[in-house]
Amino acid sequence: ELDTLPHPAYDLVERFLDRYHFRMMTGPGARYFIVEGSRGCQYNCSFCTQCVHWKHTWRTKSAKRLADEFEYLQERYGGGESFFWLADDNFMLAHRGAEFCDAMDRPVLREATSWFVQARADDIANMEAVVPNLRRIGCRWILLGIEHNSDQVLDELGKRSSAAIARKAVRILNESDVFSQATFIIGSRTETAASVEALREFVVDIDPALPIFM
After folding, report:
1. Interacting residues of 208 by C-beta distance below 8 A, sequence separation 6+
2. How do residues 2-26 score in pLDDT, each as one tens digit?
3. DSSP class of residue 8?
4. I need a labelling partner for 41 at 20 to 30 A (CA). Which of 52, 59, 79, 200 fits?
5. What is the distance between the alpha carbons of residues 130 and 2, in angstroms, rounded to a whole number?
6. What pairs with residue 211 in β-bridges?
7. What are the strands, taking DSSP E only, across the chain?
8. How many CB atoms lie within 10 A of CB 164?
9. What is the phi/psi pair of residue 182, to 5°?
10. Residue 168: predicted pLDDT
11. Which residue in 85, 101, 77, 81 sits closest to 17, CA to CA?
């Protein structure tokens, strides 16, 4: 029951907090915090260690508990602008997105905090109406694991998604003013020079703000 865990012991590193930063998205004076919102993922992508580590389960703190934790850290240690790295392997937007938006809609959070999270492209595509609300409550950055433009490769990776879904998800983030980071995998069993070139062209076409190739 993750809601029963105490708040992170930032008092142990409080004197060092000014040395932590995420200046790609915040100013030099912003405080930087890592918050664990959930553990695990219910999917089974073949390249992912986390699914195996957490035995293909997903457990989460409640939306209220997460908002309370953000507020506690901001009031106790923030002292100005803060950036929160929500360390979930998969935010599971379809399961808690709307509820999380409601819980986070607090003046102390709306006015002084911004945050980052990882999410699946299909969740973004299916929950398009929620994304502007995420931006309104401070979500500036979302990382999508798109992996490839080939649906065949995605099937081989166990991704349970498609290139069309990825294209829609990146468009939604870009139109909602949420920084779109996207990760891609080169070197699947059937990869060729031609398929790598096709992936490059796909990435240029969908235009994520920060593509990462691995």
Report:
1. 144, 146, 170, 173, 174, 180, 181, 182
2. 999 999 899 999 999 888 877 777 7
3. P
4. 200
5. 25
6. 182
7. 31-35, 38-40, 58-60, 82-86, 113-119, 139-147, 179-184, 210-213
8. 12
9. -135, 135
10. 98
11. 77
Q: What is the Cα–Cα distance from 109 to 111, expressed in whole angstroms? A: 6
Is 149 within 8 Å of 199 (Cβ atoms)? yes
Q: Amino acid letter at 187? A: G
**Cα dihedral 25, 29, 30, 34 sign:** positive
Q: Which pLDDT tens digit goes with each residue over 52-102?
A: 899 888 999 999 999 999 999 999 998 788 999 999 998 887 777 888 889
pLDDT over threshold 80, residue 144: yes
Give the rounded distance of the alpha carbon of 23 from its chain centre. Answer: 17
Helix (H) or strand (E) holding 103, with range, is helix 93-104
